[in-house]
Write a structure and sequence with these properties.
By secondary structure, the chain is mainly beta. The chain is about 0% helix and about 50% strand. The strands form two sheets. The chain has a six-stranded mixed beta sheet, with no helix packed on it. The termini are far apart.
Length: about 110
């Protein structure tokens, strides 16, 4: 249902934009999210956006640095990440809410010198 892309190896302080193309469900009306799983840790939701894009929420760890957005005409979800830190290293997924459902293969983000 989701195909994530845009990850890579970056240095601390760099920026990245992740993209996610959705298919197979009513994307335009669905609340969707970005979640991540760091090595040895559980899956955590870091950003969420309503179907119309009007309402967003963020985990404390990324508030002020990451921005979630969507283009319903393109069935695409985005995550603009700035001021990346080593603790942002993780595999990033997009998913339907509630319950982090239907996530794809993910895209790896590694933040390291």
């Amino acid at each position: 249902q989701f195909v994530e892309s845009g990850g890579g190896l970056v240095q601390p302080g760099d920026s990245l934009r992740l993209s996610c193309i959705a298919s197979g469900f009513g994307f335009k009306t669905a609340t969707v999210s970005w979640a991540r799983q760091a090595p040895g840790k559980g899956l955590e939701t870091i950003a969420m956006i309503s179907g119309d894009g009007e309402v967003t929420s963020y985990a404390n760890a990324v508030e002020g640095r990451f921005t979630i957005s969507r283009d319903n005409d393109k069935n695409t979800l985005y995550l603009q990440m700035t001021n990346l830190m080593p603790e942002d290293t993780a595999t990033y997924y997009c998913a339907r809410e509630p319950g982090i459902r239907g996530r794809g293969q993910g895209t790896q983000v590694t933040v390291s010198l």
